[in-house]
Design goal:
With about 425 residues, the chain is mainly α. The chain is built from 16 helices and no strands. Helix 2 crosses helix 4, helix 3 packs antiparallel against helix 4 and helix 15 packs antiparallel against helix 16. The longest helix has about 35 residues. The protein is globular, with a radius of gyration of 21 Å. It starts with a helix and ends in an 8-residue tail after the last helix.
Length: about 425
């Protein structure tokens, strides 16, 4: 009972931070949609898409390994390894940006100044990942909650202030950057861990890098593929349609993913630790029953909510965000198709990592990426309209989440044996 109580308390603490951090941007969105137009939101979407793709590989995903070692000396050496890889990747990113500027390999509808600042933001967010893992490791859930709220408040206040001064997309990008920096500095001081450079051993760093090599070999490519999958619409819309339409998509995605960010991410963080403990203590049967019950319950509740709001989304977006944003409501209707299974399954995909079956998840991400890449190519080749693109996009996601869910829900699968 005490363990269940602690799990509930941990989830509740993380959810409280997530509720505040995700609700604040939504609450001020009706104001922001009147301070910024859809094309400016589109520029922010491109910047954040590139950022998320880069962050997926910035520290080799060794940040996820920080939950596993017991010795503080090993944790200290792993933190150094994360920082070292992040510095190297940041430098490499600057080289890529310089080469792209010279040879124009990729054409992006954002300012050059945003690209020049991107590597530093990638570094900050990479370090943020490290200290989020450390906070989770040492059960500093309150620190995680406060950092999320701090990030949201900083971004929102800066967006409103700079928005009134009519800084346009610069306001949106700078506000996001400032928010990441503020949150990261808070975690540096409140993660429950103090990094000591003098305790770093070159030989130990090498041994730990080899010991946890599955994270860069499988978890990192999987994370990269996932981000590429998630960001496909951003680059497709920018390339085939307009930055303005991209802004509509960005707003609809932000509004619809609030429930996922509030609940799903919090459950996933705690579930990873509890699942690890259950596997170590050989309590797989209990974990399986809890996991299956949670997935079925979340899917059932989410489906009812989605069906009840589906028809009203265009009118709701028009009412809350202004008549210019009705198209965002139409796009939201297509996104709901896959967000229901995504919201139900995503928190529990951590079981693949815990059971050392992350290779399976990696192959699913490869399949999803291939299908979406084909959609991107064929969509551009045959100039499919926006509604067709989002319909196929949602069906592909739904299909892949179904494949991911089957082993989790099957007691006889490789996960539980």
């Amino acid at each position: 009972m005490d363990k269940k109580s602690n799990i509930f308390k941990s989830v509740l603490t993380l959810m409280s931070g997530s509720v505040l951090s995700q609700s604040i941007p939504i609450l001020i969105s009706p104001l922001l949609t009147r301070l910024f137009d859809s094309s400016q939101f589109g520029e922010l979407a491109i910047f954040l898409s590139i950022l998320n793709i880069c962050v997926a590989i910035a520290n080799g995903k060794y940040s996820s390994s920080l939950l596993l070692p017991e010795r503080k000396s090993d944790i200290n050496n792993l933190v150094f390894l994360n920082i070292l890889i992040s510095v190297c990747f940041t430098t490499f990113l600057y080289v890529l940006i310089f080469l792209n500027k010279q040879f124009s390999v990729f054409e992006l509808a954002i300012r050059d100044s945003f690209l020049y600042g991107l590597p530093l933001v990638v570094f900050v967010v990479s370090i943020q990942q490290v200290y989020l893992s450390l906070s989770n490791k040492f059960e500093k859930y309150k620190s995680i909650a406060i950092s999320k709220t701090t990030q949201s408040l900083t971004s929102s206040a800066s967006n409103i202030s700079l928005g009134y001064l009519q800084f346009g997309s610069v306001a949106l990008v700078c506000s996001s950057t400032l928010a990441f920096i503020t949150s990261t500095f808070y975690l540096l001081r409140n993660s429950g861990f103090e990094f000591r450079l003098k305790d770093v051993s070159k030989s130990r760093v090498k041994k730990l890098a080899a010991k946890y090599k599955d994270f860069p070999l499988y978890t990192m490519p999987q994370s990269l593929l996932y981000q590429l999958v998630v960001q496909v619409p951003v680059f497709f819309i920018q390339d085939v349609y307009t930055v303005s339409i991209l802004g509509f998509y960005a707003l609809s995605k932000r509004v619809l993913t609030v429930p996922s960010n509030i609940i799903s991410a919090s459950i996933g963080q705690v579930y990873y630790k509890q699942a690890s403990d259950s596997f170590i203590n050989n309590k797989k049967d209990e974990l399986f029953k809890t996991t299956r019950k949670a997935i079925v319950s979340i899917f059932f509740i989410t489906s009812i909510i989605a069906l009840s709001v589906y028809s009203f989304l265009p009118d709701l977006f028009s009412f809350f965000f202004g008549e210019d944003w009705t198209e965002a409501g139409v796009i939201s209707q297509y996104l709901l198709i896959y967000l229901v299974p995504a919201f139900s399954i995503s928190p529990f995909t951590q079981i693949y990592l815990v059971s050392n079956n992350n290779k399976y998840l990696f192959f699913i991400e490869i399949l999803r990426f291939v299908l979406l890449f084909l959609l991107f190519v064929l969509g551009k080749l045959y100039s499919i309209d926006l509604s067709q693109f989002f319909l196929f996009f949602s069906f592909i996601h739904t299909f892949c989440y179904a494949i991911i869910a089957i082993p989790i829900l099957n007691k006889k699968s490789f996960i539980w044996n």
